[in-house]
Amino acid sequence: MLYIVLYVAIGIIALAILFIFIKFFGLWFRALLSGAPVTIAKVIGMWLRKVSPSIIIDARIMLVKAGIPIDTDMLETHYLAKGDVLKVSMALVAANKANIPLTFQKAAAIDLAGRDVLEAVKTSVNPKVIDCPDITKGKQSIEAVAKDGIQLRVKVRITVRANIERLVGGATEETIIARVGEGIVTTIGSSKDYKAVLENPDNISKLVLEKGLDAGTAFEILSIDIADIDVGNNVGAKLQADQAEADKRRFQAEAEKRRALAKAREQEMLAEVQENRAKVVLAEVEVPKAIAQAFRNGQLGIMDYYRLNNVKADTQMRESIAKEPSAGDTSPDQES
What we know:
The protein is an alpha+beta fold. Among the domains are: 2-124, no CATH class; 128-238, Band 7 domain (Tetrahydropterin Synthase, Chain A, 2-Layer Sandwich). The protein is 64% helix and 11% strand. It contains 13 helices and 4 strands. The chain has helices at residues 2-33, 40-48, 53-65, 72-80, 85-97, 104-112, 117-125, 173-189, 194-199, 202-209, 235-297, 302-323, 332-335; strands at 128-132, 142-145, 150-162, 219-234. Strands 1, 2, 3 and 4 form a 4-stranded antiparallel β-sheet that branches. A hairpin with a 4-residue loop joins strand 2 and strand 3 (150-162). The longest helix has 63 residues, at 235-297. It starts with a helix and ends with a helix.
């Protein structure tokens, strides 16, 4: 039984050695031949720490061949921090070939910050052109209005170069686009008229570029070029027309208010007239009562009453004569 156990243990050890040889020998031997040797123990340790040995060894070989010796421990640390080891390594190689000062710690920090460090190095070598505004977001041009009220539509192209030192914590392309758009609107808005802008569109680029819009961003603005400029609507005239229409509606509302007040006053006067007429009728009712009372008191005789009636009849006759049309006012029907 002792021999059987010994043979089983030896067999297990032999199988483990064979497994390690098959799994890791190729990586170890490739690193050895590439001049970036890694001990077999480190390769096994990477596997046990759940680090991809192939990625680490490939990155080390790339860096050593470029003359950038980096220890595998630093590569493993970046891998365990969920960083892209291969992209950081390629960025270091590209920066080294372009004589751009970039350390592994800086590249790793940029990568862990969520920035594409390889793209940043490429942009630093080969400047990038940004459209302003971003047409992918639906806006085709920057719209600004000069002092004379004429609208101008402008398209701008911004040439930028990545600033490696400000990639961590620096603002992105959206900030550059927003600042340039704001600068263009301000510059056009301060222009005397749209003709001055059309005559010298390069003045817009110069004035905007002098504002230092790349401060605090991850880029350095190299140039701002006007790609297209078009004349839009007469915004000033439209605003004046809208203001005139608003004033018209306001005056109409005030006139309507005054008309309603006058109408209400008219109705009040009519009601007052009717009230006064009622008072007159009530007063006329009291006249016969007063005459009867005067008869009873002996203050009015029968002859006085007759004379009063004659006066009334004479007054009515005069009123009827005054209402009759004169000879010159005879209507055609009466003449016929």
